[in-house]
Amino acid sequence: MSSLSSFLRFPTLLASLLFTSSIQAQDALSRGQTVYMQVCFACHQPTGLGLPGMFPPLADSDWVAAKKPDRMIRMVLHGLTGPVTINAKPFATPAPLMPPQGPALSDTQIADVLTYVRDAYGNKASAVTPEQVAAIREAEKGRSAMWTEAELQKIPVE
Q: How far apart are CA 121 and CA 2, in angstroms?
């Protein structure tokens, strides 16, 4: 009878786990939106469309929607400079594209804001975890220069 009782409780346990996971995902999105509106929106705009000729769009972006977030994590940690190609179109700007945010943001804040951006503005990519950010922060701890597109293109995202 004990195994039957456990079996009957399984759907309830599974539903509870899924519900908790859903709440945690919503919390990350909410926290990520807050970080975005505090740190990112001035350049990338509340719409994620950026400013033409100055700051690139995040909306429907091939960089944002990549299967693995490793390039985006590096960009947030160390910044990005120089011309970049977005959705097969060159995007050149007179300003450094993105200043490093690694010193100012925690692993959780970076994970949350990337989770938000990867779920917003027409993007539908997987969530980013603080553990992913921490691993890349550790792997790149000796880096002080901003990334270039050529360097980031060498990092697999599939």
A: 49
φ, ψ of residue 84 to 5 degrees: the values are -145, 150
The total number of structural domains in the chain stands at 1
pLDDT band with cut points at 50, 70 and 90 for residue 43: very high
- Name the band, by pLDDT with cuts 50, 70 and 90, for residue 53: confident
The H or E element containing residue 91 is strand 89-91
The whole-angstrom separation of Cα 93 and Cα 106 is: 28
Three-state DSSP string of 29-56: HHHHHHHHHHHHHHHHCCCCCCECCCEC
Structure tokens at 7: 């079996």
Please say whether the beta carbons of 65 and 125 come within 8 A.
Answer: yes
Nearest to 121 by CA among 23, 34, 38, 46: 46
The whole domain housing 51 covers 2-153
Q: What's the CATH code of the domain at 76?
A: 1.10.760.10
